[in-house]
Write a structure and sequence with these properties.
Layout: H1 2-27, H2 40-45, H3 50-59, E1 66-70, E2 83-87, H4 90-99, H5 107-118, H6 127-141, H7 144-172, E3 176-177, H8 178-195, H9 210-227, H10 230-239, H11 242-267, H12 273-278, H13 290-320, H14 323-341, H15 345-348, H16 355-358, H17 362-374, E4 380-384, E5 389-390, E6 396-397, E7 402-406, H18 407-410, H19 414-417, H20 459-474, E8 477-481, E9 502-507
Parallel strand pairs: 2-7
Antiparallel strand pairs: 1-2, 3-9, 4-7, 5-6, 8-9
Helix pairs in contact: 5-9, 7-8, 7-20, 8-13, 9-11, 10-11, 11-13, 13-17, 13-20, 14-17
Length: 510
């Protein structure tokens, strides 16, 4: 009797599960799902091209620009931890980032995944913890002294380091990995601006920097935590294997470096961001603890290093393959420099552009914005759903689930940007007479710098740094791709090029 009863129980449970799975799967609008494992197999297969895969899924929805999928098809978990709503609909993005801002925090899963790397820093916190850091940072980013400090760091790294390396490569007719050079440049700049410590990674011999290498490894390992169910990375962490072992080793190096930087600032405070936060108070009126200060600084390094360098890499890649755009950029820069430095072309390249000159470069800013439309430095972002909600397009999102808004996909939707959405077209950012930079009337079509209360505080400084670097390179050199070099995306928090950007440099005659 026991065996037939057991078989009946198993058959009944299986039938009940399959009925439940059928009812669940018919409501999902994303990639195919399987019992138990949901869409995890397809996610794993497409892990090397995750952003394009998500964009293809969104395009397949037609004009909806929203789909829902499940990575853990197990009752209860399926409607919470395993349930994902993926969207690139501008109205939905506005709803998430502004209208119902409090209902869509980073959330426990995101914070748990990033806690080891970013702690309670501004990019991994919510509520009062986030607000006090935001207010403090906002005060600092509106000061002219920070702009002047950034200008000093940018001009120094261009003139004393970047130009020397590029000149040597051009003279010897050897190629350079432009992405690597830009990462080193922005890393030196943001470290100097954040905690006054110059790691000098952009030295002529291109030294390996343990902190920079460990930081890269840590961000890659952390991203993997977001893509798979939490119990998988927690098991790896418990066993100290795989990506979690790499993360642990990398974080030890990062922690030691940040401790040294903090101790140096305590002995000799300066005008860097870390010194400024050391003078501020938390929500209880106390000074920030050392552990929090280190994570605050690390958050700014993450924001200031990777995003600008990655954007510049895709900018040079795009311009290098569009001579018309390149000519218009050079024409604009030389027009400005004629007014500020005179008619002698030698005076144009003696020193990098100062920020006041860079401010006047409207077409160049349009080209950078167009780059970020197609290749946003942060291609996806994740939000936790606090309470049941309905998005403006009618999509129901259950409490405890995750909403992903795909910034990468927004720029690739014809329903949002038109039939020419895949074209690199800076003109779409200009006024009719071409003399003013204009953001889209629907501001949530472009959220490369985030939007709503979490809008990037360093947006203007980022544009100025990118303009200065872009001008410094293009005024002196024409770039040519190395034959056979493949430019493809890397799986990371930011949209790195997997194999770098290898180019030859040819002196430009002005």
């Amino acid at each position: 009797m026991e065996t037939p009863l057991l078989l009946f129980t198993v058959a009944a449970a299986t039938s009940a599960y399959l009925l439940w799975f059928y009812l669940l799967s018919r409501r999902l609008t994303g990639p195919k799902v399987w019992p138990l494992v949901g869409s995890l197999p397809l996610l794993f297969i497409n892990r090397r091209r995750i952003h394009d895969w998500m964009a293809a899924n969104l395009r397949a929805t037609g004009g909806a620009a929203t789909y829902q999928t499940c990575t853990i098809c197990i009752p209860f978990l399926a409607r919470k931890q395993g349930f994902y709503t993926v969207t690139c609909h501008p109205r939905n993005i506005e709803h998430i980032l502004r209208t119902r801002f409090d209902n869509y925090p980073k959330g426990p899963d995101y914070q748990a995944a990033f806690h080891d790397l970013l702690g309670q820093g501004i990019f991994n916190s919510d509520g009062e913890t986030w607000l006090i850091q935001r207010k403090t940072a906002a005060l600092e980013f509106t000061t002219r002294t920070l702009r002047q400090a950034m200008a000093r760091w940018v001009n120094r790294t261009i003139k004393n380091r970047l130009w020397l390396i590029l000149e040597k490569a051009a003279t010897e007719n050897t190629s350079v990995d432009l992405q690597d050079l830009l990462l080193r440049l922005t890393f030196d700049n943001i470290c100097g601006l954040t905690f006054g410590k110059d790691p000098e990674t952009l030295s002529p011999d291109l030294p390996e920097n343990p902190f920079a290498k460990a930081f890269d490894s840590a961000t890659e390992a952390t991203l993997q935590r977001l893509l798979y169910p939490g119990f998988l990375w927690r098991l790896q962490k418990f066993l100290s294997i795989g990506a979690e072992l790499r993360l642990e080793n990398s974080l030890n190096i990062v922690e030691n470096y940040m401790t040294e930087a903090l101790n140096a600032r305590k002995e000799a405070p300066s005008d860097d961001l870390l010194s400024r936060f050391m003078k501020r108070r938390d929500t209880d009126g106390n000074n920030f603890p050392d552990a929090v200060l280190k994570r605050i600084a690390l958050n700014f390094v993450l924001a200031g290093r990777d995003t600008s360098s990655v954007a510049l890499s895709w900018f040079f890649y795009s311009v290098m393959n569009d001579k018309h755009v390149e000519e218009k950029i050079i024409a604009e820069i030389t027009t400005v420099l004629k007014e500020t430095r005179g008619e002698d072309p030698r005076a144009w390249v003696d020193d990098p552009l100062v920020f006041d000159e860079a401010d006047r470069l409207v077409y160049l800013k349009a080209a950078l914005a167009e780059t970020l439309r197609l290749y946003p430095s942060v291609p996806e972002d994740f939000k936790y759903v606090v309470s049941d909600d309905v998005l403006p397009d009618g999509t129901h999102v259950p409490a405890g689930s995750t909403v992903t808004y795909s910034i990468y996909s927004v720029g690739r939707m014809k329903s949002i940007w038109g039939e020419d959405c895949m074209e690199f077209k800076p003109e779409r950012w200009l006024s009719e007479d071409g003399d003013r930079f204009e953001t889209p009337k629907d501001g949530y079509k472009f959220v490369a710098f985030n939007a709503g209360p979490r809008t990037c505080l360093g947006k203007d400084l980022a544009y100025l740094q990118m303009k200065s670097v872009a001008s410094a390179v293009l005024l002196r050199y024409r770039l040519a791709p190395v034959p056979g070099h493949r430019v493809e995306q890397k799986m990371s928090l930011t949209l790195f090029m997997n194999n770098g950007l290898r180019v030859y440099l040819h002196p430009r005659v002005l």
